[in-house]
Design brief:
Chain B: GO terms for molecular function: CoA-transferase activity. The complex is a heterodimer of chains A (240) and B (265). With 240 residues, chain A is an alpha/beta fold. Chain A contains eight helices and 15 strands. Chain A has a ten-stranded mixed β-sheet, with helices on both faces. Chain A has a three-stranded mixed β-sheet with strand order 7-6-11, with no helix packed on it. A two-stranded antiparallel ribbon of chain A has the order 8-9. In chain A, strand 6 and strand 7 form a beta hairpin. The mean pLDDT of chain A is 95. In chain B, strand 9 and strand 10 form a beta hairpin. The chains are: A alpha/beta (240), B alpha/beta (265). At the A-B interface, helix 3, helix 4, strand 9, helix 5 and helix 6 of A face helix 4 and helix 5 of B.
Chain lengths: 240, 265
């Protein structure tokens, strides 16, 4: 459901910066269903890739073979991402806090002697800063949804309203957080993440249990549509 | 003018103990054969540099070649964690590993600055993150024209760069294509360079979009067919995704890793 919800968040014609794993699956699902003209940009330098199968990594040959253009890595970041030419950036998170800040660096201990060492930043800090908007896809657990991230790898809204603007960040930041339970969006005033939609069969109590902060729930809480047969068939074909 | 030499000889000339060295390749064209030769030659105290230290760096770190890692994303792409890297950081095994950590945009710009002969590069990056507090190579700079405060990153000057490419001619001109990552920038940022190639040909056929590194910016060329495996060389081989998945299990366990290391040495 998380993959289907992420695919549905992509509108036709959008230019999307895609990471590997669930974002890539979701983007390719969208391109095969409602968003035929979605432009996939991978940080390896492939622009407009149209893979006929899911790549395992962001640099698989199928992406270069099917791309409109293949450019060097400095160019992807400097020409295409930095000036705001990408509509949607997809990010994952090991930890996410109530203001949409993301940690993919270290958990527990201190930076030099961490409890867990994670892969680090990759393209994420600048994707979070420069894409017009960011979609975060993350499994909702009490360990991942924390009051305050242990390390800010990618900036969301900092400690709340006005901080992105003060820092001069050009993108709108995390506008959508899609989890296995539902969807969260930032409050337009305070920028705190609010639960706005639940997936089919999920209740509010579960969302509260799996959030490490006092989760706010929208008054007009929505309910997502279950995946259609078509979406499921395409998804099965993709991940076969 | 590049010297064409056997792999072992070329590696011995280019990569020395204590070097700051990059084995670049962005998923594609990763110089595995050259990296394994470095393990065989027992190089020590290396500062390993790479945007995406993946399985090759997990192997070099596990083999004890590295003192420090300069990087932006350390994982097994599409699979998960690098367990030798993690073991070195969390447990100091086989030796402690010092880290200098960046974002991809920061690393790419650091290479560009060094390749351009400039002391630093400027970007709109790292803003609001905890990364600048962790390295002296990230600072802020004020634009002399607009007054905007931007991020400066220090040039990434290398003692040595090692990359893999599809072809070279007998003069040592090197041609590569497909996903070209930061290979060109790494070679131009280095004092010494080695390019391993799928094949040495009499004459390079021009290919639209292919990057050519002229002989006079390359020190050594070594023929290493299949030298990018388990990564790939576009039009020569495909990525061995199964090996990347298998590495997860080999690298999780120190003994299994030691057996793998024995098979290389």
């Amino acid at each position: 459901m998380m993959t289907v919800a992420a695919a549905r968040a992509l509108r036709d014609g959008a230019v999307c910066f895609v990471g590997i794993g669930l974002p890539s699956t979701a983007a390719n699902l969208a391109r095969r269903t409602h968003a035929r003209n979605l432009v996939l940009v991978y940080e390896s330098g492939t622009i407009g890739a149209k893979p006929d199968r899911l790549p395992l990594s962001i640099g698989d040959g199928v992406l270069a073979d099917t791309a409109v253009s293949v450019v060097g890595v400095p160019e992807i970041f400097n020409y295409w991402l930095q000036p705001g030419r990408i509509d949607v950036g997809f990010l994952g998170a090991a930890q996410l806090d109530r203001f949409g800040n993301i940690n993919t660096t270290v958990i527990g201990g201190d930076y030099r002697n961490p409890g867990v060492r994670l892969p680090g930043a990759g393209g994420a800090p600048e994707i979070a800063a420069s894409c017009r908007e960011v979609v975060v896809v993350v499994r909702q657990t009490e360990r991942a949804f924390v009051e305050r991230v242990d390390f800010v790898t990618s900036f969301g809204f900092g400690s709340g309203a006005g901080e992105r603007e003060r820092l001069g960040l050009t993108g709108a930041g995390p506008q959508l957080v899609i989890t296995d339970l539902g969807v969260l969006r930032p409050d337009p005033v305070t920028r705190e993440l609010v639960l706005t939609e639940l997936h089919p069969g999920v209740d509010v109590a579960t969302a509260h249990e799996r959030t490490g902060w006092d989760l706010r729930v929208a008054a007009d809480l929505g309910r997502g549509e279950p995946p259609t047969d078509h979406e499921l068939a395409v998804l099965r074909e993709l991940t076969r | 003018m590049a010297t064409i030499a056997p792999l072992a000889e070329a590696v011995a000339h280019v990569v020395r103990d204590g070097d700051t060295v990059a084995f670049e390749g962005f998923t594609h064209l990763i110089p595995f054969a050259a990296g394994h030769e470095v393990i065989r030659q027992g190089r020590r105290e290396l500062t390993l540099v790479r945007m995406t230290p993946d399985v090759l760096y997990d192997q070099l770190i596990g083999a004890g070649c590295a003192r420090k890692l300069v990087f932006s994303w350390g994982g097994n792409p599409g699979v998960g964690s690098l367990h030798r890297f993690r073991d070195a950081v969390q447990n100091g095994w086989p030796r402690p590993l010092e880290l200098e950590e960046h974002s991809h945009a920061g690393m790419a710009n650091r290479y560009v600055a060094a390749a351009s002969g400039l002391p630093f590069a400027v970007l709109r990056g790292y803003t609001g993150t905890d990364l600048p507090g962790r390295t002296a190579n990230i600072a802020s700079v004020t634009c002399p024209f607009t007054g905007e405060v931007l991020t400066a990153v220090a040039a990434l000057e290398l003692d040595a760069a090692v990359v893999h490419a599809q072809r070279a001619d007998r003069h040592g001109n090197v041609q590569l294509w497909g996903i070209t990552g930061v290979q060109k920038e790494a070679v131009l940022a280095a004092t010494r360079s080695l390019v391993t190639v799928e094949e040495v040909v009499d004459e390079l056929e021009p290919r639209p979009g292919a990057v050519v590194l002229p002989s006079w910016v390359v020190d050594y060329v070594a023929e290493a067919p299949g030298g990018a495996h388990p990564s790939y060389a576009h039009d020569y081989s495909v990525r061995d995704n199964d090996f990347y998945v298998a590495w997860d299990e080999i690298s999780r366990d120190r003994e299994k890793f030691a057996r793998w290391l024995g098979s290389v040495a």
